[in-house]
Amino acid sequence: MRSIFMVKKNYILLLLSILLLSACNKKVKKEEEPEVPEPVYAFGYNMDKYIVKNDTVKSGDTFGVIMDRHHLTVNEVYNIIESTKDTFDYKQLRLGKPYTVFCSKDSLEKAQVFVYQPSVRSYSIIDFKDSVTVARTIVKPLDTLRKTATGIITSSLFETLEEQNIDPYLAIKLSQVYEWSIDFYRIQKYDKFKVIYDEFFVDDTVSVGIGNIQASYFEHWGNPHYAFGYEIDSIHGNWQFYDEKAKEMKRMFLKSPIEFGRISSRYSMSRYVSIYGRRKPHLGTDFAAPVGTPIRSTANGVVTASAYRGGNGNYVKIKHNKTYSTQYLHMSKRAVKKGQYVKQGDIIGYIGMTGNTTGPHVCYRFWKNGRQVDALKHTPKDSEPMPQALKAGYLKYIEPVKMELDALPYPEIKEPEIEVTDPMTS
Ligand SMILES: [Zn+2]
Asked: According to the CATH classification, is domain 41-139 in 3.10.450.350?
């Protein structure tokens, strides 16, 4: 027992002396050399080792001009460009974009590294401090955050969002969700909204854009409109919006294959065609728009034809299901290939005047059970029902999301201040 005690005692003494020693050392160290601050890095370079100059691309700036300002010779610039022109496009420097030059920390202050930032998400480094010049582009990882926003509209949806420092692009996203149920040009004062959406960030704090709307509530004229985003087809990435009863927000067909434009000629069994000089049935609906205007697929489907043929000119035909197909004629350019899957609203070509036409337009042919019918009369008005197999899962999914929406509070209304004149003084 005694010996063990002795060992223990010695051990404790030893331990104590080590502790004292180290404490002593620490003290001495602290007095003799001040603590060195952690080096600060920018784009992976220790900022203490360079003279770091931040600037933006000015009018007339090229890589060569910028490098000349930082004491590189024409020959040196030429060699840098020659050895990296395959990895960095020197013509991409854009006015106003930020760049950083790391210069040598000596009397020469010569450029050693050039960093160009075309966007908050990415930057390119051209490193010529050593004998070998290296160029590389780094794309920062994107974080997705789930965010919420609510508002009571007193002016416009845009302004209501802007007042809260929310990207007004959310207004466009919302108007797309409610494209078929709410006319966003006729929003009423005191209409309300609640929205749960994704926002993308880099470096934790810099927003780079709004992602999908997950769910939203819009009260228009006192009527509630719920919408929940749901992926019904993971293969084609079909993300659709449904209401609280699993009814799709969007209809199966868009009203028009072009976003803006007018109907210049309707479907008719006997139309006078000037180029033929006689009456001839017109089996489509013509939408006139300038050459080059994008033509959209009016519904989801598979391209069954994308070709050039006689009177049709450049045309595309899309099969939507066993009943419906649509066809688009006289394109200046086709943008899809046979066999390709397209979603409603996808650009499939551009307005032109190929084939038999007298002016730029798209002749929109609506096929029902193999016959060309009047699109204005036969386009189904109902939305596509959610497949029964998915309905139970959907309703279960939206239950907590709807509760979350309902629980979101509205901000206080900021009414414009009205000056009250005192009747006693006027
Ligand atoms: Zn036509």
From this structure: yes
